[in-house]
Amino acid sequence: MKARKLELFVLIVAAALVGTMGIAATTSPAAADKTDGGKGGEGRDIAKWNFDDQKAGAIPAGWKVATTGAKAKRAKWEVVADATAPSAPHAMALTKTENIGETYNLLTAGQTTLKDLALDAKVRVMAGKGNQGSGLFWRETDPNNYYMARWTPLSNNFRVYCIKDGKPRRLANVNIKLDRTKWHTIQIHQAGQQILAFMDGKKLVDIQDVTFTKAGAFGLLTEADAVAEFDDIRVRDILVENPKP
After folding, report:
1. What are the phi and psi torsion angles at 117 (to 5°)?
2. Contacts of 47 (CB under 8 A, 6+ apart)
3. Dihedral of CA 154/156/158/162: which sign?
4. Which domains does the chain have, with CATH numbers?
């Protein structure tokens, strides 16, 4: 009996130590969900979308199409039938765009705004002669001000940008070569001023930026003439303790 009590005591002390020490973010997005680089806490699911309950040829109610760039034209986003989608039979896709250069096609996800968040989606790049950049944006105050992360197989890189007053400023660049014909997962975490970016579970970016400090909209993005499909979009809030200003 005494031995059993001692064992229970050791387990309780060990659990308490783990809870107070925390766990640093690693290459695993699951770990980042829990720690956000050691500066946050457990979050909660805000919303998930796989579009399987939506009619092909339209976008869900509440979602909004927008563009960035003085010469940008409105692109066509729609739910498409795709038996190869991670959660078949549907996915969300940008199917037509006439944009070129430093222009961005945005699809804002519903009406929710968040400051500290974990945002992820599966993406497959379909086409793009001049650009194949496809990814996510967040903390958007309007179509000319937000953070964005995109992967482009055309130039084999993953980049994070700050779009301020419609002009892009590169915050990070990582060379990465992946099969364009397959689905890949992009995941973003921002807690306070720290931005973490993952690709297929591997941490690529860990930076600090203070350009946008308030809650904003989030959603899907392609650059210029990039055409892509997206599926299994998920957003969680992040509970941040003593965030930096």
Report:
1. -155, 160
2. 109, 110, 112, 234, 235
3. negative
4. 24-240 (2.60.120.560)
Give pLDDT tens digits for 154-186. 999 999 999 999 999 999 999 999 999 999 999
Burial zone of 111 (CB within 10 Å; 0-12 exposed, 13-18 middle, 19+ buried): exposed
**Angle ∠(149,152,155) on CA atoms, nearest 5:** 130
Tell me the two tokens of residue 105: 């096609």
Confidence (pTM): 0.82
Are 188 and 203 in contact, with CB atoms under 8 Å apart?
no
Strands 184-191 and 194-199: antiparallel
How far, in Å, are 47, 67, 145, 202 from residue 39 at the CA level?
23, 33, 25, 19
For the record, the structure tokens of 70 come out as 């003085």
Q: Which two tokens stand for residue 168?
A: 């892009």
